Amino acid sequence: MKPRGVVPFDKGVKIMLGTAINVGAILAGSVIGVSIGSRLPERLRQTVLNGLGLLTLLVGLQMALGTGESHDRPGSHPARRLSGGNPEDS
User: Would you list the domain boundaries of the chain?
Assistant: First the structure.
């Protein structure tokens, strides 16, 4: 039985699709940040930067320390858990 949500491409294509989506998201975020960032107060910019740094640190620690779960199962990746869990559970 094929898992839901899996595109019937080979593994290399899935990896490249994920990379392309990641690059697009980074570029879009950069454009938004450059265009809007200069209009925000310095204190708010610093708060957002500190919050993103803390989130990155926490996700990195969670991945480094492990949670006793296998990251091979869909939905078990820490970023997916932070974003609301496994969509297949709903």
Answer: 11-40, 41-65+74-82
